[in-house]
Amino acid sequence: MNSAAVTNFPVTDRVRQALAVTLRGVQELLPEDEWLRKLARAEATGKPLRIKLGLDPTAPDIHIGHTVVLNKMRQLQDLGHTVIFLIGDFTSMIGDPSGRNTTRPPLTAEQIKANAETYYKQASLVLDPAKTEIRYNSEWSDPLGARGMIQLAARYTVARMMERDDFTKRFREGRSISVHEFLYPLMQGYDSVALQSDLELGGTDQKFNLLMGRHLQQEYGQEPQCILTMPLLEGLDGVEKMSKSKNNYIALTEDPNTMFAKVLSISDTLMWRWYTLLSFRSEAEIEGLREEVEGGRNPKDAKVLLAHEITARFHGEAAAQRAREDFENRSKGGIPDEIPELALSGAPLGIAQLLKQANLAPSTSEANRLIDGGGVRIDSSVVSDKGLKLAAGTYVVQVGKRKFARVTLA
C-alpha cells in the first residue's frame, strides 16, 4: 500500500471544513478517518485528490434526482480536487445487475454513444466542464482481453460475489444469473484501479460495486479508495423516489416556467430535504432560513428562493427571474406574457372538444372532469357548464394553474 496513506498530516481548519462539505447530505462515507487523512495530505502537499463518478448511459435524459450525486461532485470540485466523469461505455454492454431481479438487456454501441453525449451535456450544467476529466472505461477494458479478464476474475471469489443481495435473492428464487453479470462489479472495480481514484461516489444501491473497487485496488497494491453514497431524492409527491415512471420528476430539459412551478409545488417539509441535497447554499444559510420560517416567515418565501436557484442553474439567471415573475403573475390570476397561439375551426364548438383539440386535455371525458373540478377558465372566468359552445372569436383558455392557450375559433 502507498505509504502516504498512513502518514499523518495536520488536520487544519480548512481540512475540517472540507470534511464538513463532504459529509453534507451523504448516506455513508467509508472509512471516514481515511478520507480525513487523504484531505489532510492533499492540503499539506497541494496535490488534489482524484474523485470518480461512473455512470452507465442507459438512458439519454436525466432529472434533478440524478443531480444529487453530481452536486456532491461539484462541491468537491470547488474545493480544488480532480473530478473524473467516467462514462461506462464498456460496462453498459454488460448491464448493471444492481437491484435487478432479471438479467438487464445490454445496449448497442450506437445507443451508448448517443446516450453518453446527451448525458454529459446535461451533467455539465452542474459540473464545471473546464475542470472535469471525461473518461470512457473502454480505454482500459478493451485492451484487457481474455487473458486479463481471467486474471482479474481470479482476484475475487464466487462466495463473496453471492453476498450481493440481488444475486442471493435471485439464486434462492430460482431466477437465472448469467456468468457475465459477475463481470460487472469486477469491471467497475477495475475502473478504480485504472484511474487510481481516491474517492468513488454512487447511489446507495451501488455500495457493493464501490467496495469492489476498494478491494481490487488493494489487490493491485494501490492505496484503496474511500466510498461515498448519496441518498435517493424523493420526488414531487414527497413519498416515492424521483422517477419518470412515477411521474413525480423534474427533467433538466423542462422549460423554466414549468421547472419553477414544480419546485414550488413540493411540501414545506420536503423543501428542507431538497435544500440539503440540491442547493449550493451553505448549511449556515439554510439553517438561517429554517429559523426564519420557524419564527413566522412564510415558508413559500424559502421555496421561491429554492425554485429560483434550481431554475437558474439549468436555464440561467434571466430565465429564472422571468419564471418567477410569471408564477407571481399567475398566482394573482394574471395571464403569462407568452402563451401558445392556435387557430381552430368548427364554431360553435363545444368546450370539451375545444380543450381536446387545443391539447389542453387528452380527451373530452378528461376535459369534462376538469370542468367539474373548476379547473377551466375562459378569459379568466371559471367555466361550470359542460354544454358550453363557443362562437367564433379569440379566447384565452386556461386549464389548471399552468396551461394556457390563445385560441382563435372560426
UniProtKB/TrEMBL annotation:
Keyword hit for Ligase: yes
Main location class: cytoplasm
Domain of life of the organism encoding this protein: Bacteria
Reactions performed catalytically: tRNA(Tyr) + L-tyrosine + ATP = L-tyrosyl-tRNA(Tyr) + AMP + diphosphate + H(+)
Protein name as it appears in the record: Tyrosine--tRNA ligase
Motif residue range(s): 'KMSKS' region: 241-245
EC code: 6.1.1.1
Family: Belongs to the class-I aminoacyl-tRNA synthetase family. TyrS type 2 subfamily.
CDD domains: S4, TyrRS_core
InterPro entries reported in the protein's UniProt record: aa-tRNA-synth_I_CS, aa-tRNA-synth_Ic, Rossmann-like_a/b/a_fold, S4_RNA-bd, S4_RNA-bd_sf, Tyr-tRNA-ligase, Tyr-tRNA-ligase_bac-type, Tyr-tRNA-ligase_bac_2
Oligomer and partners: Homodimer.
Entry's localization field: Cytoplasm
RNA-binding S4 domain location: 349-410
GO MF term list: tyrosine-tRNA ligase activity
Taxonomic lineage of the native organism: Bacteria, Pseudomonadati, Pseudomonadota, Betaproteobacteria, Burkholderiales
UniProt-annotated binding residues for ATP: K244
Keyword list, A-Z: Aminoacyl-tRNA synthetase, ATP-binding, Cytoplasm, Ligase, Nucleotide-binding, Protein biosynthesis, RNA-binding
Purpose of the protein: Catalyzes the attachment of tyrosine to tRNA(Tyr) in a two-step reaction: tyrosine is first activated by ATP to form Tyr-AMP and then transferred to the acceptor end of tRNA(Tyr).
Organism: Ramlibacter aquaticus
